[in-house]
Fold this protein.
Amino acid sequence: QAKNDPGDPICRYRSALSEDLEVRSQVRKDLRAGIIAGELRLLYQPKVDLRSGRVVGMEALVRWNHPRHGLIPPARFIPVAETSGLIIPLGEWVLEECCRQLRLWRDDGMSDLKGSVNMSPVQVFSQDVAALVAEALHTTGLPAEALEIEITEGVFVHDEQRARRRLEGLRALGVGLAIDDFGTGYSALAYLKRLPATSLKIDQSFIREVTDQPEQARLCRAIIGVGHDFGLTVVAEGIETAEHLAFLRAEGCDFGQGYYFAKPLEAQDFAKVLRDQPWLTGDAAQ
Ligand code: C2E
Ligand code: MG
Ligand code: MG
Ligand code: MG
């Protein structure tokens, strides 16, 4: 009897846990079928050169268009994909789809457009990611310098040697390598000198309060300085207001993304932004 007492904390915990496991196993089953059925989609968030206001690139962000639940954000299924091995086919699809779309836009006149793809640490550990990227570039005819791979600091936690070798393999192809969500991981600075990164993305949590908390502004300024000292380009994510933008411009941050410019867009809407270049500053607009 006591086993099924909903007031009993252990019982509550057990049922919460089993529910969670049930949900996860359902998600896993649906996702496996969904990948095969072509339910994954990419959205593209503009990346803007903060000095000129020009759209110079985009970040590809995956969505799952579930037949019953609609468009599902990655936070809801990437973790399941990572623990079930589905991140491998998912990651391959994202990579190739982004390269394919980028090639089309470059052929269509935006010849120096760049694209960034997020890669899970799980992929870096379980796959020869350099071979994977080389193949995607080859199949789509995209030059390596058009592509950047984004990886979070978490990739270095388990086996830094191995992660470094894999990432050096990527760099050797000529693709860019960005450290994503910079500043939120376990040790922000020590590995900067040991990694073949080409850019650093300041996490949006730093940007959010940059204009009303002096300490956040100091942190942000310091990150931009450290990034530049290490020869990296610095990208701010999560720019939401004109004040955020003005601050980052004044501090010499190179590139930015955020809702102030645009949310992640459908391909045809991103193409329109590329044509219209709505954020060109006075100088660059002339
Ligand atoms: P991320 O790579 O750091 O991507 C930035 C996230 O911030 C995106 O959420 C984006 O929509 C959101 N964002 C952009 N501008 C703003 C803003 O101004 N304000 C706020 N509040 N949010 C903004 P999204 O698309 O839900 O992706 C979440 C995370 O899921 C990504 O974080 C990335 O870690 C992961 N992810 C997305 N696509 C992929 C993928 O194809 N493969 C892998 N492995 N992970 C992915
Ligand atoms: Mg990213
Ligand atoms: Mg990020
Ligand atoms: Mg993030």
In short: The longest strand covers residues 55-66.
